[in-house]
Write a sequence for this structure.
């Protein structure tokens, strides 16, 4: 009787339609409405479901492509917000994320349906993975069953975002196809008959021409400049002139390789065909033109940055805005002078560029390179802050009024965060290198680190820092030389001759620094490095670059007895900087405000002397008792004296340097 009753209940029972099933059906409907035929997608449920819910095929030009990417769909009643509401946190099967990441080259997307808000959010599986790597100190999370993944709240899954996904996935599949066509044979992959397209013989200039015309700009977008430049060198000019795409590639690749005269030649050819250029190409060419004009000395830095600012207001895409912004900040930093206020917009500009780079949809290499270029800006900002603080302390110490410990600690605490941020940025790029195995990106990262080290040493030593306080530098110096030479050798192997030349110069600078300042042999044969430098200059027609460290060492070792009061540097200062120097002196000497004008006039007097007097035999100094007794400094205007080192004849004291110089014929 019991079994009969149980059978009847089971027979009459109907499936329960619970909330989860309703939400699942609703989320599927919404997903398919976005990834529709009209939007350029074929949305198929993946059966059996072994790790993803949907298999999405791209439709391009009204044709199915068989380019497919996976899509995992999840739903949550009420999402958990983190990071001040910027991200949604969701617990996700770790194995599912790994399964999506294994689908090359697309790696797929994850979509989350928030039931209460009736909204879809999404992100690319690889972006989620990159975020996890940056958020966590190790890979231990990969061993867990679940991991909390984060969706940007700004990425609402709708028709507008679907259009972006279509472009991104098309680019990924095109790049994957290009990679297999170009390098498949080296890895045992089939290359015959891929999409029924022709093969290219890369020893045949005509085939190279066809290949670059078709794929060159895509390679440029991925910053494969070594391959491009090596190929364009083999293409006859008559073929380049006939193909506007080849002209673009030639102008850009020669410019990026540092061959500016050749770049200008192709740019002028391209310019003559201006009616055939689209807006994006015209923008690219304008940037190339500015770089060429600056490199050839036809415009100054200000004209260059003014041109960039004009371009920035009309930039048509995110990458252009980033590259233009990077260069504007770089030249703003170049214009920074000691003792002058740092432009308040520079720091937020650098930070905004970093944010834009991290959200840019581009290749890992290009993202890494953009990060490094902005890291160079951060390096210069950090060193400018350090130098300004150090110059103030150095001046106070010279005047017998050293800055108290709390001031020095405050300055150190202001500077150190920039150094840490620079280091963290390089580590972020190293993660990309680790994931991709990109040796070119690794070499540029090493070079960025080495250049920062050299610049730091120049700043430290330029302020007469005590090398004994810098710890054991022996192994550090050797490592930096080896780093620079390793990057140099890789650049040579890839055809990046000018990058190799700069890396070699860096190695020479550090080797010279080690020998001349720290008495350390960082490289066993420094003369060999100088010989290689000369050979690169001769073989590749590179204009020699003067080394900085030898001149710095000479200045540190030279006791300038003529500059009795250390005032020769005034010749390089403008009025704003001189006022800053005068105020530091006023504070150090604890003098009243009304004496500031006498200090300023003293500085301007020395500036006038060093700018107008070209005779090294003549020296200028102030009358020792001109300022009266101790504590009476600068109550009266400073009086100067001119003196001949040969005859020991001196002028009468005069507070007007202009009159003194005129009386001596200057």
């Amino acid at each position: 009787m019991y079994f009969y009753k149980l059978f009847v209940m089971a027979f009459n029972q109907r499936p329960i339609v619970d909330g989860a099933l309703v939400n699942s059906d609703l989320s599927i409907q919404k997903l398919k409405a976005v990834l529709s035929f009209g939007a350029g997608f074929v949305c198929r449920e993946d059966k059996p479901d072994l790790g993803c819910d949907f298999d999405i095929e791209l439709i391009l030009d009204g044709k199915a492509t068989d380019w497919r990417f996976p899509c995992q769909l999840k739903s949550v009643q009420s999402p958990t917000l983190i990071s001040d509401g910027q991200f949604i946190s969701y617990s996700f099967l770790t194995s599912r994320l790994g399964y999506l990441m294994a689908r090359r080259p697309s790696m797929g997307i994850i979509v989350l349906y928030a039931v209460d808000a009736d909204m879809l959010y999404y992100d690319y599986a690889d972006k989620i993975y990159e975020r996890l790597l940056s958020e966590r100190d190790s890979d231990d999370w990969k061993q867990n069953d679940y991991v909390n993944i984060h969706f940007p709240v700004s990425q609402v899954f709708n028709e507008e975002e679907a259009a972006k996904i279509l472009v991104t996935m098309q680019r990924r599949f095109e790049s994957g196809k290009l990679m297999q066509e170009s390098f498949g044979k080296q890895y045992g992959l089939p290359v015959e008959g891929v999409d029924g397209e022709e093969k290219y013989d890369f020893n045949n200039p005509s085939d190279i021409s066809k290949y670059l015309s078709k794929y060159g700009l895509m390679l440029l977008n991925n910053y494969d400049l070594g391959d491009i430049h090596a190929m364009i060198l083999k293409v006859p000019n008559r073929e380049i002139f006939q193909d506007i795409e080849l002209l673009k590639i030639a102008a850009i690749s020669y410019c990026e390789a540092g061959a500016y005269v050749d770049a200008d030649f192709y740019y002028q050819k391209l310019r003559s065909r201006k009616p055939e250029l689209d807006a994006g190409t015209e923008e690219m060419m304008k940037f190339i033109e500015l770089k060429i004009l600056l490199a050839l000395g036809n415009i100054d830095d200000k004209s260059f940055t003014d041109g960039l600012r004009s371009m920035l207001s009309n930039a048509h895409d995110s990458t252009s805005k980033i590259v233009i912004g990077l260069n504007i900040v770089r030249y703003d930093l170049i214009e920074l002078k000691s003792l002058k206020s740092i432009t308040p917009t520079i720091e937020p500009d650098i930070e905004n560029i970093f944010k834009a780079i991290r959200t840019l949809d581009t290749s890992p290499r290009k993202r890494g390179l953009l990060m490094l270029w902005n890291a160079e800006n951060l390096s210069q900002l950090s060193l400018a802050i350090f130098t300004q603080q150090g110059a103030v302390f150095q001046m106070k110490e010279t005047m017998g009024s050293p800055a108290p410990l709390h001031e020095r600690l405050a300055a150190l605490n202001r500077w150190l965060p920039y150094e840490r941020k620079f280091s963290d940025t390089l580590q972020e790029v190293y993660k990309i290198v680790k994931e991709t195995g990109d040796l070119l990106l690794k070499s540029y990262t090493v070079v960025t680190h080495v250049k920062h080290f050299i610049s730091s040493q120049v700043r430290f030593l330029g302020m007469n820092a005590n090398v004994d306080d810098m710890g054991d530098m022996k192994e550090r110096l050797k490592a930096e030389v080896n780093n620079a030479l390793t990057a140099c050798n890789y650049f040579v192997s890839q055809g990046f001759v000018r990058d190799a030349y700069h890396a070699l110069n860096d190695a020479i600078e550090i080797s010279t620094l080690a020998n001349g300042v720290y008495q350390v042999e960082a490289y066993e044969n420094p003369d060999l490095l100088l010989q290689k430098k000369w050979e690169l200059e001769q073989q590749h027609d590179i204009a020699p670059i003067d080394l900085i460290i030898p001149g710095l060492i000479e200045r540190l070792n030279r006791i300038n007895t003529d500059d009795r009061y250390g005032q020769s540097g005034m010749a390089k200062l403008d009025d704003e900087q001189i006022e800053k120097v005068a105020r530091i002196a006023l504070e150090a000497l604890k003098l009243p405000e009304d004496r500031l004008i006498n200090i300023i006039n003293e500085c301007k007097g020395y500036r006038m002397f060093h700018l107008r007097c070209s005779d090294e035999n003549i020296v200028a100094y102030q009358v020792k008792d001109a300022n009266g007794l101790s504590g009476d400094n600068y109550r009266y205007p400073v009086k100067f004296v001119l003196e001949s080192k040969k005859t020991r004849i001196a002028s009468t004291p005069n507070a007007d340097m202009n009159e003194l110089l005129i009386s001596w014929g200057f």
